[in-house]
């Protein structure tokens, strides 16, 4: 076995990193923290969280870590499961195009549990979050596109490893301890995309955060495990993805810039899969410029590059929850001027007038269309073309939807997102925003946890 393979080199880079010296990275981390809490508080009344609580309560255990918006605490690992689920329950949380998944809803719940024991500074918490996003983004690039296309859910398979690296960094793990933690997380990796459109999709985030914390605890206990989990044909990349790509790309240029800044996190304005955000923006524009009644719409073509709709597995959704992964449902809502709101994507039946429009909406794939240089994700676009029954035709193309890097939300936008999620508790929202803005000391972390 190579004594200085990928695992050891990665652990060394993590241990030696000092992202707190980069003001842009720390500001980006504050924005990510704000967005995570906005997404989690918006989901606090989700039906699935009550079911998860019943599982946690039946198991029992200590009550050490606050669960967002629940007014109570759970155990070290169960809180990570619950907080991970909450952050992703509405598919309203951030995305990173390198990951092809959702970093913060795995990394931050693990870090909150690890920080709840006390003695962790706010600066260290933010720096560990930067490390987690960096690790997950690099894993996303290194694993190769085939990993996702084969049916793996990157949030689940990559998130636990990144969260273990972040938590290990938070706790000051040595290089060797980081190697062990990465290995324990890697051996737990799993999560299938055929769960999209069900409560298990956001559960993947909680399970990954929970796996990261088990990895930390096993490491601290001195449990036996390999120091080389990422290396060779039997290692993580050899089994799950593209070992050659990982060896070429995983570590290259570490620390020259931070992925939380460049390309940056994609903060959502809509509570559904980011793969449908291009179509949503296009359909909203079409509605503004050419409002049509449902009966006046003859056909809607939604044009993607091949594979651009891989995450959108629902073509004939019957509930709003399934509609989070249906570009047909998203387009139908937007074209008819209905809100793209949390309520429209709840687990309740879709209204009949929307169901009637869905068969007139079809997906088209055209690889002859030149991708825009500024497209996010790279090579991606969506065109929505509406043909009216009277023969008129209207189209809009979106390459970089609102919220994505290059068309990013501002700190003010995220402030409003959090305030909207806590509309009934404006004082709590203001206190959270103030605490995040000045997060520096261990006392600030304690205050943050108290506000959850």
UniProtKB/TrEMBL annotation:
Pfam families (alphabetical): MmgE_PrpD_C, MmgE_PrpD_N
SUPFAM superfamilies: 2-methylcitrate dehydratase PrpD
Domain of life: Bacteria
MmgE/PrpD C-terminal domain location: 270-423
Gene3D superfamilies, per the entry: 2-methylcitrate dehydratase PrpD
All copies of domain MmgE/PrpD N-terminal, residue ranges: 8-241
InterPro entries named among the record's database cross-references: MmgE/PrpD_sf (IPR036148), MmgE/PrpD_sf_1 (IPR042183), MmgE/PrpD_sf_2 (IPR042188), MmgE_PrpD (IPR005656), MmgE_PrpD_C (IPR045337), MmgE_PrpD_N (IPR045336)
Family label: Belongs to the PrpD family.
Protein name (Swiss-Prot/TrEMBL): MmgE/PrpD family protein
Species whose genome carries this gene: Paenibacillus konkukensis
